[in-house]
């Protein structure tokens, strides 16, 4: 698949007064109505007390072409941060987050957001969806109350973008809540009212939640998610997500001093330690020092060194041996000649290596 498929969820929450719900309970509500009110109130409290926290999101992607078989596409690792009712993303190990979305880190294939907290926020809000109690079911090793729900298109923030078009879809789905703790432990959602601009048969998402300890306090966080998209052409994309290494996200600062009487040490820098913006169409030959295989994840750090002095008007612009660092932005696997991986986008481009894939030499138009 040459172009990307993005699924973006923007939460629109309409908060209603709980007083009406409790007053109606005294008048005799349908089965499950009072529990639903308590579940929503509890989940709003859980989301409100959820601090700025980030998790490592590992996305295993699979793709099946029309008439073909399902096969692995790649693995993507991102850092996801939930803050102020938003999900923002960064490459693993980056020092700061920006308003990036998962599609900003991939070159193609199915990728989406909302699985960390936005689907849960949408259900916790009142007024944007209707719910119907379906009784209790055995799930995840316990008895859980199931509710079916709907989010109409005019209230939905679910947008799907594919090469053939873009459109907002409605959502129908179910969620399962623990009657004792009021925790929502699973959400299953399916797109409906798909506009004609989207040649899509189905888009389905399932997310599981559990309590995670962060700095001595338990918070309800996603553990895993699965979603798939089927197009009219017969192409099927399927992703599996795992959320791990969760931690509180905050800034800390400290000042330290050397031993008394120790002379101050001043930092020095050289061209080898600096990021440099290179001139357009500048040819730089590099040799990868990081081994790249079919198991390499998109988002992984890769290193290389410059081979030979890079000259500009007979002057050395980049000396031989200068380090080059970057991340894998897209990794395609090709079956010819025994199989090889091809990173085709990012700091390294036009890098083609046979198996075993590292080391290799490549000419790149630019590098930092």
Q: Which CATH first-tier class of the largest domain would you pick?
A: Mainly Beta
Number of helices: 3
Largest sheet: 14 strands, mixed
Question: Uncertain spans, ≥5 residues at pLDDT below 50?
Answer: 12-26, 251-275, 344-368
CATH architecture of the largest domain: Clam
Overall shape: globular
| Cα-to-Cα separation, first versus last residue | 28 Å
Q: What proportion strand?
A: over 45%
Strand elements, count: 21
Instruction: Give the class from helix and strand content and strand pairing.
Output: mainly beta
CATH fold-level name of the largest domain: outer membrane lipoprotein receptor (LolB), chain A
Compute the number of structural domains.
Answer: 2
Computed over alpha carbons, the radius of gyration is 25 Å
Q: Tell me roughly what share of residues is in helical segments.
A: under 10%
Residue-averaged pLDDT = 74
Care to describe what's here?
This protein is mostly beta strands and 368 residues long. It has two domains: 4-248, outer membrane lipoprotein receptor (LolB), chain A (Clam); 275-364, no CATH class. The protein contains three helices and 21 strands. It has helices at 18-25, 33-49, 118-124; strands at 4-9, 53-64, 71-83, 86-90, 109-112, 130-139, 142-151, 158-162, 165-177, 184-192, 200-214, 217-231, 236-248, 284-288, 297-298, 301-306, 310-312, 315-318, 323-334, 340-346, 361-364. Strands 1, 2, 3, 4, 5, 6, 7, 8, 9, 10, 11, 12, 13 and 15 form a 14-stranded mixed β-sheet that branches. The protein has a five-stranded antiparallel β-sheet with strand order 20-19-16-14-21, with no helix packed on it. The chain has a two-stranded antiparallel ribbon with strand order 17-18. Strand 19 (323-334) and strand 20 form a beta hairpin. Helix 1 (18-25) runs antiparallel to helix 2 and helix 2 crosses helix 3. The protein is globular and about 85 Å long. The protein starts with a strand and ends with a strand. Mean pLDDT is 74; it is low at 12-26, 251-275 and 344-368.
């Amino acid at each position: 698949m040459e172009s990307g498929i993005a699924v973006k969820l923007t939460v629109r929450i309409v908060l209603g007064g709980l007083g009406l719900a409790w007053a109606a309970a005294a008048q005799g509500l349908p089965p499950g109505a009072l529990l639903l009110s308590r579940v929503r109130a509890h989940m709003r409290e859980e989301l409100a007390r959820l601090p700025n926290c980030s998790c490592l999101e590992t996305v295993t992607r699979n793709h099946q072409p029309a008439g073909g078989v399902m096969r692995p596409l790649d693995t993507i690792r991102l850092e996801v941060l939930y803050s102020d009712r938003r999900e923002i993303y960064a490459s693993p190990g980056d020092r700061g987050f920006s308003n990036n979305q998962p599609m900003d880190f991939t070159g193609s294939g199915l990728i989406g957001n909302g699985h960390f907290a936005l689907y849960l926020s949408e259900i916790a809000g009142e007024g944007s969806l209707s719910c119907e109690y379906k009784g209790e079911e055995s799930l995840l090793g316990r008895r859980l109350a199931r509710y079916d729900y709907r989010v109409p298109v005019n209230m939905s923030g679910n947008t799907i973008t594919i090469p053939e078009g873009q459109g907002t879809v409605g959502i129908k789905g179910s969620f399962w809540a623990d009657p004792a703790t009021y925790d929502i432990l699973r959400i299953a959602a399916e797109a409906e009212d798909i506009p004609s601009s989207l040649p899509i048969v189905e888009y389905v998402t399932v997310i599981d939640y559990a309590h995670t300890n962060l700095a001595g306090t338990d918070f309800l966080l996603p553990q895993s998610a699965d979603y798939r998209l089927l197009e009219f052409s017969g192409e099927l994309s399927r992703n599996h997500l795992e959320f791990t290494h969760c931690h509180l996200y905050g800034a800390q600062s400290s000042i330290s001093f050397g031993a008394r009487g120790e002379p101050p040490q001043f930092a020095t820098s050289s061209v080898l330690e600096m990021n440099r913006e290179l001139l357009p169409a500048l040819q730089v030959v590099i040799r990868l020092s990081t081994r790249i295989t079919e198991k390499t994840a998109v988002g992984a750090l890769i290193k290389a060194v410059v081979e030979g002095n890079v000259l500009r008007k007979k002057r050395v612009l980049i000396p031989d041996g200068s380090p080059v660092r970057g991340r894998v932005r897209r990794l395609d696997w090709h079956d010819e000649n025994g199989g090889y991986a091809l990173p085709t986008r990012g700091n390294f481009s036009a890098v083609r290596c046979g198996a075993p894939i590292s080391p290799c030499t490549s000419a790149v138009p630019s590098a930092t």
